Amino acid sequence: MSLRPTLETRKATPTLEGAGVKLHRAFGFQDPSELDPFLLFDDFRNDHPEDFLQGFPWHPHRGIETITYVLSGTVEHGDSLGNTGTLGAGDVQWMTAGSGILHQEMPKGNDAGQMHGFQLWGNLPGAQKMTAPRYQDVQGSEIPEIVDDDGTRVKVIVGTFWGKTGPVDGIAADPQYLDIFVPAGVRKTFKIDTYRRAFAYVFEGQAAFADASAPTGVLLEKEVAGEEVNIRDYSGNRTLVRFGTGDEVTVQAGLEGARFLLISGAPIDEPVAWHGPIVMNTQEELHQAMKDLRNGTFIRPAH
């Protein structure tokens, strides 16, 4: 077994998206090889309806998959193929855009006017970029949750973990998508297949991820003993942690526990030509997609 080193820790940055939705972007529109096969990750969390109700009106996607995970509030969606629906708290939608789709996503707050969810973009390999679009809408009740003896809780959204398999399947990136809570003071190790690229996104509490060169397992003991602890050793709210190669990730939760997403996938290792929500392999393919949008042939008829 080998511990994955922490390559980078950074805060998500405030961003305006859609028709003026205020969100935080952990990564996106940078070097696509860093977290290949993943392209973008947004945290749309807000307590003020005026900051998200304008939503994400009609826009195109081609060549990627979008994964939406709602924690609170609802997201109403519709598309150019006539699909409509509503995602509620705990629900997941995995949309394979494939050859092209126009859709909209309109977030609605809960009774307290709060909205919280995540969206992840996964790339498609060239051989699958022009496949027929499809949806996988999953209710929160269908997502298995494992509770370990020490109180650690893991929701398995995609992939297989601790003997449970998530309900979303057939995804090109062969991903593992886990929602994990580790109780206060607990130190926990999670296995990740070596061939996968991996990152964590901390969104509640604080977590110290051990580095192969600088283990952080004594941080909590120092806190309890009243000794000074450098808070930079912990990853807190809205923090991305990018890991290097290995087959284990070790985390220690702070005094309030820690909740984070642990996401990994098999790299595609192909060229990327990228323009907003359209991701192809070559500039020629990208230009063709733009041409299709202009002349009304972006949506391919069903075969």
Please identify, by name, the CATH architecture: Sandwich
Distance between the termini: 47 Å
- Indicate the percent of residues in helices: under 10%
The CATH homology group name: Jelly Rolls
Total strand segments = 23
> Ranges with pLDDT <50 over ≥5 residues?
212-220, 228-232
Provide the β-strand percentage band: over 45%
Topology as a string of helices (H) and strands (E) = EEEEEEEEEEEEEEEEEEEHEEEEH
Can you count the helices?
2
CATH class descriptor: Mainly Beta
Task: Using brief descriptors, characterize the structure shown.
mainly beta; eight-stranded antiparallel beta sheet; Jelly Rolls; 23 strands
What does this structure look like?
There is one protein chain. The longest helix is centred in the C-terminal third of the chain and has 13 residues, at 283-295. The chain contains 2 helices and 23 strands. 41% of the residues are buried. The model is unreliable at 212-220 and 228-232 (pLDDT under 50). The strands form 5 sheets. Strands 1, 13, 14, 17, 18, 19, 20 and 21 form an 8-stranded antiparallel beta sheet that branches. Strands 2-3-4-11-6-9-12 form a 7-stranded antiparallel beta sheet, with no helix packed on it. The chain is mainly beta. The chain has a single domain (14-265), classed as Sandwich (Jelly Rolls), CATH 2.60.120.
